[in-house]
Amino acid sequence: MLEWKEEYSIGVEQIDEQHRHLFEIGNKIYDLLENYLYVDKYDRIVSIIQELKDYTKYHFQAEEDYMIELKYPRYFSQKVEHDDFIQKIEGVDLESLDRDQDKHIREILTFVFDWVLEHILKKDMLIGA
Fold first, then answer.
1. Dihedral angle of Cα 78, 83, 110, 42, to the nearest 10 degrees
2. Is 115 in contact with 85 (CB distance < 8 Å)?
3. Residue 128, pLDDT score
4. Which of 14, 57, 58, 80 is deepest in the core (most CB within 10 A)?
5. What pLDDT sits at residue 56?
């Protein structure tokens, strides 16, 4: 589980709120992984992955629009990282996920939490600066 800390704030309220929501989606993945009452988690994780895809596309577009408005010099590198993230999420092999659900859910969770934290702390912080 990953909790939002004020030190993750970049100082742009709209973007910070969206980042908090990404944490919430990541925590849905965590909660699903830790829920041992569900024998079959496939439909639930597919739904969360779709939510993650939809929301990251929305968030990345908002963030990119903000960077364009600011004439942010690192816009292109941010855009590439955003596109890579979406490509990774869209590339989740749902057939493999169905065969070994907890393993793949754990991999998705690790990827999302690591990427989001790394990206916010090292890249997005520069936008607010």
1. 150
2. yes
3. 80
4. 57
5. 97
Can you list the domains of the chain with their CATH numbers? 9-128 (1.20.120.50)
Residues 116, 26 contacting (CB under 8 angstroms)? yes
Per-residue burial over 39-68, b if 16 or more Cβ lie within 10 Å, else e, is eebeebbeebbeebeeebeebbeebeeebe
The reply to whether the predicted model has a pTM over 0.85 is yes
pLDDT of residue 68: 97
- Sequence-separated (6 or more) residues with CB below 8 Å from residue 16: 8, 9, 10
Please name the residue that has the structure tokens 């969360």: 48
